[in-house]
Design a protein that fits this description.
Blueprint (H helix, E strand, L loop, with lengths): L15 H19 L3 H27 L8 E8 L11 E6 L2 H20 L25 H4 L2 E6 L2 E2 L3 E2 L11 H8 L9 E5 L2 E5 L5 H22 L26 E2 L2 E2 L5 E3 L3 E3 L5 H7 L1
Parallel strand pairs: 1-3
Antiparallel strand pairs: 1-2, 3-4, 3-5, 6-7, 8-9, 10-11
Length: 291
């Protein structure tokens, strides 16, 4: 049986540092209350002052939208992709190191932002990446300047590059980047075409007994997606895009011809998309890869 009291509403700016400072203040007070010495009094006053300072800083960041400049700076370390030519700069994956306190604040905003977006159905039903209950995994008051004035340097060994200002896209290494990206990429497909989106990995499919119908519907969808990407600053990579068709009978159809950016997509018998798929859906390549 409850006491009938409503739970105290959490302060949006309250974070782990505030909780830790408050615990240290209470611990110091408990020690001073049991042993009222001058040293314990000084320690309690120091813990109380520290807790006030941390609360004020956290509250100011949330309410006044004032961010430390170090929170908007990142150090990017390029990591070579396994099995790729290290001489090619395109075969490196950038890993951005940002402020730990900044990540903590972003996680607070991210939790509220995702809840608000899910409750209002803002995400595309095709999107499965980084969403609760879809993969292994009140909105925030975040000022736009926090996302726009981002600076990064590239570090190779002990050498740092000059400053680069990020002019477009989501911040590399930010906790909020994934949610902001999938929110931006919410694009609906034609009714005859189905799709699955895992962050930026996108697949579309169409089923029919007529290959011409399949080609026409997929081409309409690709044209619509390409127009949307051109208008919103995205680029679809031809080198990473392939075509697969599934049919129980051999030799019944010719390979489909799907055009992307004026180039015919190559037809493959295997593809990686959250696993390895083969054209006969035996999943043998996937099982062999797991072994």
């Amino acid at each position: 049986m409850t006491q009938g009291k409503l739970p105290k509403s959490p302060k949006p700016w309250w974070n782990h540092d505030c909780s830790r400072a408050e615990k240290q203040k209470k611990r110091a007070w408990g020690i001073f209350r049991r042993y009222p010495t001058e040293a314990n009094l000084i320690e309690f006053k120091r813990a109380r002052s520290q807790a006030r300072r941390i609360r004020r800083e956290s509250q100011r960041i949330w309410n006044e939208k004032v961010f430390p400049t170090s929170w908007q700076r990142a150090i990017v370390i390029p990591i070579a992709k396994p099995g790729k030519d290290p001489q090619d700069a395109g075969n490196y994956r950038p890993i951005a190191l940002t402020s730990c306190l900044c990540k903590l604040m972003e996680r607070m905003v991210n939790a509220r932002l995702v809840y608000c977006l899910e409750e209002n159905g803002a995400f595309s039903p095709f999107q499965s990446g980084f969403r609760h209950h879809r993969q292994h995994l009140a909105s925030g008051n975040l000022h736009p300047i926090f996302l726009k004035t981002r600076v990064f340097q590239v570090r190779v060994g002990s050498t740092l590059s000059r400053d680069f200002y990020q002019l477009e896209g989501v911040p590399q290494g930010s906790v909020l980047s994934v949610v902001l990206f999938i929110l931006k990429i919410n694009e609906q497909l034609p009714p005859a075409v189905k799709g699955t989106l895992f962050v930026d990995d996108f697949q579309i499919s169409c089923a029919s007994t007529n290959m011409s119908t399949v080609e026409r519907q997929l081409q309409i969808a690709i044209r619509k997606i390409t127009d949307w990407t051109n208008n919103n600053g995205f680029v679809i990579s031809n080198q990473k895009t392939i075509c697969m068709y599934f049919c129980r009978k051999r030799g019944l159809h010719l390979d489909p011809e799907i055009i992307l950016n004026g180039v015919a997509l190559p037809v493959r018998s295997e593809a990686k998309f959250l696993g390895i798929f083969d054209s006969k859906l035996t999943f043998l390549p996937h099982v062999q890869h797991l072994r």
